[in-house]
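Morning. Coffee machine broken again, so started the prediction first thing and wrote up yesterday's gels while waiting. Chain of 309 residues, entered below exactly as on the submission form.
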Amino acid sequence: MGWVPERGRLAAGLLANLASSICIVFLNKWLYVRTGFPNLSLTLVHFAVTWLGLYACQALDIFAPRSLRARQVLPLALSFCGFVVFTNLSLQNNTIGTYQLAKAMTTPVIVLIQSLAYGKTFPTRIKLTLIPITLGVFLNSYYDVKFNFLGMVFASLGVLVTSLYQVWVGAKQHELQVNSMQLLYYQAPMSCGMLLCIVPFFEPVFGEGGIFGPWTLSAVFMVLLSGIIAFMVNLSIYWIIGNTSPVTYNMFGHFKFCITLLGGYLLFKDPLSINQGLGIACTLFGILAYTHFKLSEQDGSKSKLVQRP
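Came back before lunch.
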């Protein structure tokens, strides 16, 4: 019965990621639309709160830090900065529907990276499911009445860097033999330091529109709440990828896809044309087919292990 607590922990991790990931999208969009809070500054707050959260966790003996060299974590810290900054810029410049649908491209890109860089092979039927996913994203973007070229550039960069980041997270945890908290404990302050050097060149620091500007108490509260939720998102991403795989994390992410899309149309009144609806349906078909084949593949592997003498 050892599988019961293991499955329970996995379910708890997935639920925590589901709730925090959906909340962070709507909360960040609210901050961009209603308060105009600067993007890089908000990302800096997220990194700082994540760092403080992990420091508190290790002080409470929730995990024991491991000694790692800076150069071992540097590529991950850089990709973490790019991943969060570009996805937030995509959210800021696109509708929630286009932002969320563009993220579905992460799965095909991860498959491509793992095939080219790591020599991993995928069955033909798995590769074929990536066609409707890609086609659906294209149809949605093409017929989006609020299409924003700059937003699509940010979305494309976000997909590329996110894919690299998620592949490296899993690889680094196994390579360095560390868990999610131990790796993020070193990576978060490095990412925070990098962004701290960049923010003054792109955004005001003091005065109107700056991180230390005259914000209302409610705006400050929402920014801090966003940072706490971001800490939960970052920690759950590391935990899920470290205990499963980047592709599994992305397939679970597609369940969040539908809820986030619906919330965008209800809360922010994002327009939706019939052709966009077809694009979404096409992407969902590819996602469901991919999930079905991956689960069948895993069941087949388990059967072979059981039958082996």
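Confidence is low (pLDDT under 50) at residues 302-309. Going to sketch it on the whiteboard this afternoon.
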